Amino acid sequence: MTGTPPTRCCIAGADTGDPRLVELVGELSLRSERFRTLWARQDVKHKTTGASLFNHPQVGPLALNYERLLIPGSDMQALVTYHAQPGSDSEERLRLLASITTPDPGPNTPVRPRPARPQTPTPDH
User: Fold this and answer.
1) How far is CA 85 from CA 31, 54, 93, in A?
2) What is the DSSP letter of 102?
3) Count of alpha carbons within 13 Å of 35, Cβ hemisphere only?
4) 3-state DSSP call for residue 61?
5) DSSP assignment of 31-55, as one string?
6) Burial tier of 110 (Cβ tally within 10 Å: 0-12, 13-18, 19+)
7) Is there a contact between 46 and 68 (Cβ–Cβ < 8 Å)?
8) What is the pTM of this model?
9) At what angle do helices 19-31 and 33-41 cross, to 10 degrees?
10) What pLDDT tens digit does each residue of the chain (125 aa) get?
11) 70 - beta bridge partners?
12) Residues of 16-36 as b/e, b for ≥16 C-beta within 10 angstroms?
């Protein structure tokens, strides 16, 4: 990422004079010296990748990596994608979850043909 690092007003919102935000910052500033120090530094950075742990009620724990992609010109809207490590328990649980939530095709649902597999030459006998 190039350019100037974002300031806290970019992250907190365009309306830094919002009374609820002012009240929250004031309350946190009174209660926490660490918050006061961090808020005063204004060194906010966008976190674009990381890991999250979810506990899904049907498939159990899912350890997923994420990537957050800011949409240019959209006032901080972002697209967040999640994926499991290939071969992990979480990948298997995501596959299970997909099979649970994918409805069976009805009798009138067109079936997409499978791609043709390349023919393997057979030895002549």
Assistant:
1) 40, 14, 11
2) S
3) 9
4) strand
5) H-HHHHHHHHH-------EEEEEEE
6) exposed
7) yes
8) 0.48
9) 130
10) 334 444 444 445 556 678 888 898 899 999 999 998 888 887 766 678 999 999 999 999 999 999 998 888 887 788 999 999 999 999 999 999 998 877 776 677 666 665 555 555 555 54
11) 78
12) eeeeeeeeebeeeeeeeeeee
User: What's the chain's length in residues?
Assistant: 125
Q: How many helices (H) and strands (E) does the chain have?
A: 4, 3
| Sole residue written with tokens 């067109």 | 110
Could you tell me the two tokens for 31? 């209660």
Provide the β-strand partners of residue 83.
65
CA distance 63 to 2: 30
Q: Is 3 left (phi over 0), alpha (psi -120 to 50) or beta?
A: left
* Token representation of residue 97: 């979850």
Q: How far apart are CA 31 and CA 61, in angstroms?
A: 35
Domain residue spans of the chain: 1-46, 47-101
Contact 57, 18 (CB under 8 A): no
